[in-house]
Specification:
The structure is a single chain. By secondary structure, the chain is an alpha/beta fold. It has one domain: Creatininase (Rossmann fold). It contains seven helices and five strands; from the N terminus they run E-H-E-H-E-H-E-H-E-H-H-H. A five-stranded parallel β-sheet has the order 1-3-2-4-5, sandwiched between helices. Helix 4 links the parallel strand 4 and strand 5. Helix 5 packs antiparallel against helix 7. It is globular. It starts with a strand and ends in a 13-residue tail after the last helix.
Length: about 260
């Protein structure tokens, strides 16, 4: 792995040039990994950069395994649903898409073989999927977005507390466990609060901001969080991500398949 932010341009160029000559299982060494996070409230006990820290760690582990280029994370994302909490700083969906596309275009000139975007925030899913579609449809750079594959299954195995809503893991046991595994000094255990709001029947089916439902920004209960649970969640996410990437890396360097015209 080579960490771009701490490397010279000549070192990155040499790394990618060497990767360009490889095929088969070694083709993944031509990848660039982009962690895409958010500056978003995570209750009174977790840092605003929780999503970025998670994406950066998953991306780092993947880049190490695949001898890839690790790009510095994007610390902002589409966090409109948490905009009602001070400290949250978000981007528009169009800006998230544009940033990812621009980075992909730049990587083409660097000689990268493919781009893997490791997404850390739910709000980024749609704009990053759009960016990947643009980069792939225009045949600029093979691109894939990883939305933490394997994480949901790992959560189900280790979770003790009840989720505040199906699929909602925000500033509670899950994310607190992950941050305890990453950097326990950033977790204020003395500030734990539990919050189980009553949501309307159409919650999750239309855009809603979250601050009317939870004063603290917590959705669930962090009390049962442990570093061991966080380590399990991260490890399983990396394992599942590597399995997903097998199919992606197998196509790198091959002529692009015929694609239908964009609608």
């Amino acid at each position: 792995m080579i960490e771009a932010v701490n490397s010279s341009w000549t070192d990155v160029a040499a790394h990618l040039e060497a990767a360009a000559a490889r095929t088969g299982a070694d083709a993944a060494s031509g990848l660039a990994f982009l962690p895409f996070g958010a500056l978003e409230q995570h209750g009174p006990h977790l840092p605003l950069g929780t999503d970025t820290a998670t994406a950066a760690e998953v991306a780092r582990r993947l880049a190490e395994r695949l001898d890839a280029v690790l790009l510095p994370p994007v610390h902002y994302g589409d966090t409109w649903n948490n905009a009602g909490y001070p400290g949250t700083v978000g981007l528009s969906t169009a800006t998230v898409t544009a940033i990812a596309v621009d980075i992909g275009r730049a990587l083409v000139h660097s000689g990268a073989r493919g781009l893997v975007i490791v997404n850390g925030d739910w709000g980024n899913r749609q704009p990053l999927a759009t960016a990947a579609r643009i980069l792939n449809d225009e045949r600029l750079l093979p691109t894939i977005v990883l939305d933490h594959p394997g994480m949901d299954a790992a959560i189900e195995r280790v979770r003790e507390s009840e989720p505040a809503a199906p699929g909602l893991n925000h500033a509670e046991e899950v994310e607190t466990s992950i941050m305890l595994a990453l950097d326990p000094h950033l977790v204020h255990t003395d500030r734990y609060v539990s919050a189980y709001p009553v949501f309307p029947s159409d919650f999750g089916t239309r855009p809603m901001q979250l601050h009317p439902f939870s004063e603290s920004g917590v959705f669930g209960d962090p009390a049962t969080a442990t570093a061991a649970k966080g380590a399990t969640i991260l490890a399983d996410t990396v394992t599942a991500s590597l399995e997903v990437l097998e199919g992606f890396t197998a196509t790198l360097g091959a002529p692009p398949a015929a694609r239908p015209p964009a609608p």
